[in-house]
Specification:
With 221 residues, the protein is α+β, with helices and mostly antiparallel strands. 55% of the residues lie in helices and 19% in strands. It contains six helices and seven strands, in the order ααβααββαββαββ. Strand 6 and strand 7 form a beta hairpin. Helix 1 packs antiparallel against helix 2. It starts with a helix and ends in a 6-residue tail after the last strand.
Length: 221
């Protein structure tokens, strides 16, 4: 017999992995399209040169710079996606939390753009170590960030803040407009499963425009 919790866990894994994969692949395709377009421009310049029309060095330089820029963007996408895929290698491991919040910000850019929202990360000055499930932590933070984007109709910026407390590590999602409208149905079944798996606690202040996630410093504690 299939365990209900295992079924929910599988669905969470596949849905989140699928959404991130779709977002990254779409952006990667856009980068390739720009590279292809500029490759066509270079080909046109070569054909013009073969017909005796002098090459314009500045134009060639501009096209090459656009290609270099898109290659750099695509390379960054691949590195981020590679880090994300490896977050499932070990279920529970000690990680540097800042790296994964930075990864979350990068992976959520397309979703944030859809909602007309900018996501900022107030990066701490010192390392923040936590023993947890990096994949599930990223997934839970994604769900909370998206809930904030959906509920903040006039929110143009959501800041992510990490706070170290005696009882654990708190991740805060703060609206620039000081107001959220998180529905009572959130957290739902998926988010509740993630909270329980991570031994985390969710709370929200709609009027203050804040969502809080409190994690233990070690998932075993």
């Amino acid at each position: 017999m299939i365990n209900a919790k295992e079924t929910l866990a599988d669905r969470i894994d596949l849905q989140f992995f699928g959404r991130v994969s779709a977002s990254v692949s779409h952006d990667f395709k856009n980068a390739l399209a720009v590279i292809n377009e500029n490759a066509g421009l270079l080909q046109d310049l070569v054909l013009m040169s073969e017909k005796g029309i002098p090459l314009n060095p500045e134009r060639v330089k501009a096209v090459a710079e656009k290609v270099r820029e898109r290659v750099s963007i695509a390379d960054s996408m691949v590195k981020n996606f590679n880090k994300f895929t490896h977050s499932v290698d070990t279920h529970v491991i000690e990680i540097e939390l800042i790296e994964y919040i930075e990864l979350l910000v990068e992976l959520s850019r397309r979703t944030a753009s859809k909602y007309g929202t900018a996501v900022l990360f107030n990066r701490p000055q010192t390392q923040v170590m936590i023993k947890t499930s990096p994949f599930y932590l990223t997934c839970l933070c994604w769900h909370c960030l998206e809930a904030a984007m959906k509920s903040g109709e006039n929110t143009k910026t959501i800041s992510i803040i990490i706070e170290t407390a005696e009882d654990g590590i708190r991740i805060c999602f703060v609206s620039s407009k000081d107001k959220f409208n998180i529905p009572d149905t959130f957290p739902g079944n998926m988010e509740t499963y993630l909270l329980n798996t991570l031994n985390a606690v969710y709370s929200a202040d709609n009027n203050g425009g804040k969502i809080f996630l409190l994690f233990p410093k070690s998932i075993n504690s």
